[in-house]
Automatic annotation (TrEMBL):
<protein>
    <submittedName>
        <fullName>LysM peptidoglycan-binding domain-containing protein</fullName>
    </submittedName>
</protein>
<feature type="domain" description="LysM">
    <location>
        <begin position="105"/>
        <end position="147"/>
    </location>
</feature>
<dbReference type="InterPro" id="IPR018392">
    <property type="entry name" value="LysM"/>
</dbReference>
<dbReference type="InterPro" id="IPR036779">
    <property type="entry name" value="LysM_dom_sf"/>
</dbReference>
<dbReference type="Pfam" id="PF01476">
    <property type="entry name" value="LysM"/>
</dbReference>
Length: 204
């Protein structure tokens, strides 16, 4: 399901609005003084998750673009969307993808150090070799069954994009607020109210 653009618009209006000076530079407020969230998109702390979720074409707006994210509204909005998506996603996982169902045989040679090195050589995964051959010490001349396969990363699920979840993930979790970083406890209510206005205006 595509991300609801009206929800992002409601976030922008909640974060700033045209009457606020920051509207012209940081409309969605990522990159404010003390904001740690910007680090997740400028120098991703979880690069695997970042690479799964964020389109490569967005890298020119995000990676090492701290100054532009803080001063250019387009960069700021893109960074805010990227951070929201990262925050709302579950931890990434690996899955084995078989290139085909053909089962082949590989003969171990001198220099093979184990399943890991062999898997890279023949285009499969260590877990596939283990599944087909069991766990064992290998010797030159041993024959191993294998199937061509590779690992892919995926996001197993997402939090619902409700105002309450957006408040907890993007603004502040009221139950975990720290002194000096209290966030906006009415954030979810503001998102809900603003979203309703946008929907009503669209239906005119």
């Amino acid at each position: 399901k595509p991300l609801d653009w009206k929800l992002i618009k409601a976030m922008i209006w909640t974060e700033t609005g045209a009457a606020v000076t920051a509207w012209k530079t940081r409309p969605i407020q990522i990159g404010n003084t003390g904001d740690e969230g910007i680090k997740e998109v400028v120098i991703p702390a979880r690069p695997r998750k970042y690479n799964i979720i964020i389109p490569k074409t967005w890298n020119t707006y995000l990676i090492n673009k701290t100054d532009l994210i803080r001063s250019n509204p387009e960069y700021n909005i893109r960074a805010g969307i990227a951070l929201l998506m990262i925050k709302m996603s579950e931890t990434e996982k690996d899955k084995i993808v078989y290139d085909n169902e053909n089962e082949d045989t590989y003969e171990v040679v001198e220099g093979d150090r184990g399943y890991s090195s062999i898997a890279k050589k023949i285009g499969t995964t260590q877990s596939v070799l283990t599944k087909l051959n069991g766990v064992k010490v290998i010797h030159p001349g041993d024959k191993l069954k294998y199937k061509k396969a590779h690992l892919e990363q995926y996001i197993p699920g997402w939090l619902l994009f409700t105002p309450e979840n957006i408040q907890k993930q993007y603004n502040i979790d009221p139950t975990k607020a720290q002194p000096g970083h209290r966030g906006d406890h009415t954030y979810a209510d503001k998102i809900r109210f603003t979203y309703a206005l946008i929907v009503a205006d669209e239906s005119k």
